[in-house]
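Hey, I'm writing a tutorial for new members on how sequence and structure tokens pair up, and I'd like a real worked example in the thread rather than a made-up one. If someone can provide the structure for the chain below, I'll link this post from the tutorial.
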Amino acid sequence: MVTDWFYPFPPLIEGTLLKRYKRFLADIELATGEVIVAHCPNTGPMTGVCHPGGRVLVSHSTDPKRKLAYTWELAEVRDTVPTWAGVNTALPNRVVKSLLEARQIPELGEYSTIRPEVRYGGDGKSRIDFVIAGETSAVPTYIEVKNTTWARGNLALFPDTVTTRGQKHLKELAALGPAARAVMLYFINRGDCTAFAPGDEADPTYGRLLREAVAQGVQVLPCRFEVTPEGMRYAGLAPLVLD
């Protein structure tokens, strides 16, 4: 299912990745030959996405308060066919918020309120990305969003490294029932993946906890997106592979 719902990007500029360093910085050569330093808004290892010499797309800001005017937004991956993958991990929550406001995920049912960044968990120090409630739902729905760009062929995987924070989120989601509905939404930030599975190779503990969470009633929504230099189009859910 590919919907008409579309999230536009600002104008993007093409370049070639020279190197990524200090996690948040990337040297990129633009088509003009100019070498820029761009902000890399991604704290992870970017497995399979960070390729020196590969094509990338950056956005440009005229805000004089910014330390770096350019932001690395997309990277071209060539695992199967050339595909754009999202680099900016701040973007998925904004996209999901727009999806929720447009009522584009029917699996979530009907709701009248959307609250972002709600405190929850046993210690009250965690924040869930979204809580939706109202209409026909008897209990609120807690939604955690995880961005993924790692893939094996057409299978999207999460995580691509050990994530104690992600493990904690799974435990907290599983503990919500029956007072609330818990949803783990995986944001598949590349268009060539047709199924989703836990990244057991990178973090077997996370894979075990995800399977336990599903058995305890946590709903998993692997959301597919077609990613182009113009923006993102929601492509519906991918099958969940837990075997």
